[in-house]
Amino acid sequence: MIEVDSISNAWIEGLRQFKTTELNRYDSRLGPCVEIENLLVRIRNPRANEDLTKLYPSRLSLVIDRYAGSFLDPDNVENSTNSKRLYEWRKGFNNDGTPTNDQQRLNQVARVIDRIVSEPGSRQNVVAFWDPEIDWTHPNPVAPLVASFKAPAGILHSTLIVRSVDAYLGTLPMFVGFRKLHDRIAQESGIRPGSTSFLIWSYHVYEMDLPAISDLLDRENS
User: With 0-12 CB in 10 A as exposed, 13-18 as middle and 19+ as buried, what is 163?
Assistant: First the structure.
């Protein structure tokens, strides 16, 4: 488990795990990987606007903004799976079990905000990203699976469960994007944002990126 105070520290400490933790090695469709299973990361006081430009590879800095925006942009559902699942989840059945019209959609974020206001301690305040009718056989399925939000003491805490993420290139955009969503929900619910947590089933890096990761950690230690 990693427990730190900022997004940047969470990313660096996550990369350090590849030097200190027993790793799984496997050949993915994109190349040889090393993997840590079931990594839990808790960020006590993350700031979504934290300056990460000195850490992330400059050639890929736009990835943070683009992916982070997928958690926030209800107008981008045609181009972003995350946006579509959050803001226009396709409804299959009504509460009575009857099929819905194919055009009916569910804004999961709006529903979270309503429940935070009415039942801040609810353990049912959950949103889904994974659609088993689509992602089971999709060649590039979504990485986030499910998220939960709770505010029993007037402070919002959230958890995102993640199927798989590239620790070097994919983690920062995901941390930033989910934190931005967390902040929006807190603001629109009229409460303070608290901690965010991530449970990552497959936290991996490609072996070709290990030298760059080692150089980054050496700079952080110097």
Answer: middle
